[in-house]
Design goal:
The structure holds 2 protein chains of 2 kinds. Chain A is built from 15 helices and 10 strands. Chain A is of the alpha/beta class. In chain A, the strands form 3 sheets. Chain A has a 6-stranded parallel beta sheet. In chain A, strands 1-4 form a two-stranded parallel ribbon. In chain A, helix 2 crosses helix 4 and helix 8 packs across helix 9. Chain B contains 9 helices and 5 strands; from the N terminus they run ααααβαβαβαβαβα. In chain B, strands 2-1-3-4-5 form a 5-stranded parallel beta sheet, with helices on both faces. Chain B is elongated. Chain B starts with 8 loop residues before the first helix and ends with a helix. The chains are: A alpha/beta, B alpha/beta. The interface between A and B is medium-sized, with 31 and 30 residues.
């Protein structure tokens, strides 16, 4: 079986020849290969070379991210939040950080309603980064998209599948929670629910259209959806049902109807909300967990429903021993990989200070225990 | 959500997250010259109920944060009426900051809100705090507890350095240290020699109560 066949089998909940493997690679590629994080985030050629070298030496992997989650242009376009960037605000070898302040205002709900999703994101980008105002963002957007199409081909030539063709920033509660900052957005849910609801579906409709077209152009029919601020770590079931679930259903169904796979990247502990995911179409999604959710509970609740990906914790990759990582992976392969429907990965990004032998351990673990 | 029947009307209103009702009752209390410390006690009892509902899994973080906002709004009306020297007794003092190399403060700020609601005096050192600043704060304030926060694994070294700096300054016996934040764990606590690990904001408050009260 090749990597594509393994991933497709895992998504369909069939057992491939072995458990597929592919950690979430971004800043670690810089640390491992000796380029700066500033270079990783801004230079596409250096970024893909670092990704491919890391994959070659610490893999082989069946699937890889191409440091899309550490690409400066994409982060600026997709996140309504001021970034602290290596080489500009931070030392060139630091990883980027998010400076969360109340940036979007209550008026921004009305603005979004007036001008629509694409123009709104453009407007926000210009407010955060004046140098990208108006046409200033046009070339970075075009060139980054062309770059990702090129990188997808390079990853496939190296024998792996690119993890996603588009990084969707999330449903409106996730986007506005970052942009308003968390506490004011929580206040909006209690004090101004009508404002959120007035633009919730508009955002979903606009954003999923952009995502599908983007993934289609890049040539990888998987859409990564950032799922963080709508988790039970932050909001109640009542709020999830009111503000988030209908938009997840709409977004996920629309992506599937377009012949693509939603990759639900779930940051923080989603265990208490996993039962809701049975409302999404079976055998069509990937559930990516970051180590905070109970992955065994996920297997119990969703094992017959969606492919599970994850979840070797960042703290283990950075601070654990290789034996500890191997043990952790063995447990995942045997329990979560039982019967198929599992991709071994890191819990969210491989940390920049991960030990290389620990990253290599993921591949070694599937080679030792991952064959069905 | 029905709250504890022993709570007063004001305590129930805040426990039920009824913002407008809380302020209506409060305004009535103030018009009737109810002593400010009695009002604070009723509000605090309501907040204790919120904490209980959170631990029981009935309330989530958003309800905790909203209750904190209602409480802060209520305290803003009551505090000016408290005479100097007859104020609410502090539950204790502690220092909180995000470790050097990390500028994330979301969790830290929620913890501070809850600590202040619980009556603690918090010295907030902010983000990207070097080890020596924690040491200086401990020396100057005499606070017996430090809360060290980090989201990034790359801040682990600076957390370790902070612990070493506290030890080298001869302050380790005087101060307890709790850690918290997205990437931290009890294993990290053990590795760097801290005393407590708080998985979430309410555990941080419980730790503060166990150390300071």
């Amino acid at each position: 079986m090749n990597s594509f066949e393994r991933i497709e089998a895992a998504i369909s909940l069939k057992a491939p020849d072995r458990v597929p493997v592919g950690p979430l690679l971004d800043h670690f590629a810089a640390t491992y290969t000796g380029i700066t994080n500033a270079e990783l985030m801004t230079d596409g050629d250096k970024r893909i070379d670092a990704v491919l070298k890391t994959m070659r030496e610490l893999g082989p992997w069946d699937v890889t991210f191409v440091a899309d989650t550490a690409t400066e242009t994409l982060l600026k376009l997709g996140l309504p939040i001021k970034l602290r960037l290596p080489g500009k605000d931070l030392d060139e070898n630091e990883i980027h950080q998010l400076h969360e302040v109340e940036f979007l205002t209550l008026d921004d709900y009305d603005l979004l309603k007036r001008i629509g999703v694409f123009r709104f994101m453009w407007n926000v980008l210009g407010r955060l980064y004046p140098e990208m105002k108006g046409l200033g963002a046009a070339w970075p957007l075009v060139s980054t998209t062309l770059e990702f199409r090129k990188h997808r081909k390079m990853v496939e030539k190296a024998g792996a599948r690119m993890a996603c063709g588009f990084v969707h920033p999330g449903i409106l509660p996730d986007y506005f929670s970052l942009g308003r900052s968390m506490q004011p957005f929580m206040m909006d849910m209690f004090r101004h629910p009508e404002k959120i609801k007035s633009v919730n579906r508009l955002w979903s409709r606009g954003m999923v259209g952009i995502a599908i077209n983007g993934a289609r152009f890049v040539g990888e029919p998987t859409v990564f959806i950032g799922c963080a601020r709508s988790s039970p770590t932050f909001i109640s079931p009542k709020q999830f049902e009111e503000f988030a679930l209908p938009e997840y259903e709409y977004t996920i169904n629309t992506i599937i109807d377009a012949g693509m796979t939603p990759l639900l990247h779930c940051d923080t502990d989603w265990t208490r909300f996993l039962h809701y995911f049975r409302r999404f179409p079976a055998r069509k999604c990937i559930l990516e967990l970051d180590g905070a959710s109970d992955i065994r509970k996920a297997k119990e609740i969703l094992g017959d429903y969606m492919c599970i990906m994850g979840d070797v914790p960042a703290t283990l990759l950075a601070g654990g021993t290789k034996d500890e990582v191997m043990d952790y992976c063995r447990g995942l392969i045997r329990e979560i990989g039982k019967g198929g429907g599992f991709i071994l990965s890191s819990g969210c990004s491989i940390p920049a200070n991960a030990k290389p032998e620990n990253v290599k351990a993921l591949t070694e673990a599937v080679e030792e225990w991952g064959y069905y | 959500m029905e709250s504890n029947s022993e709570l007063t009307e004001l305590g129930k209103a805040i426990a039920n997250l009824e913002e407008d009702k809380t302020y209506e009752i409060l305004d009535r209390y103030l018009a009737d010259s109810v002593p400010p410390l009695e009002i604070i006690d009723e509000l605090s009892a309501g907040m204790d109920e919120v904490g209980k509902l959170y631990k029981e899994g009935e309330y989530f973080l958003s309800e905790l944060v909203f209750s904190g906002e209602i409480f802060k709004g209520a305290m803003a009306k009551v505090k000016p009426l408290i005479e100097t020297g007859s104020g609410r007794e502090s539950s204790g003092k502690l220092i909180v900051g995000t470790a050097k190399g990390d500028i994330h403060d979301l969790g830290k700020n929620i913890v501070i809100t809850l600590l202040e609601c619980a009556g603690f005096e918090v010295i907030d050192l902010g983000v990207d705090v070097p080890a020596e600043k924690f040491v200086e704060a401990v020396r100057e304030s005499g606070a017996p507890l430090v809360g060290l926060s980090a989201l990034l694994t790359t801040a682990f070294n600076s957390m370790r350095e902070t612990m070493e700096a506290i030890r080298n300054a001869g302050l380790r016996e005087r101060v307890k240290v709790m850690i918290g934040g997205g990437s931290t764990s009890d294993k990290l606590r053990e590795q760097i020699g801290a005393d407590f690990y708080g998985r979430d904001a309410t555990e941080a408050v419980d730790i503060a109560k166990s150390v300071l009260k």
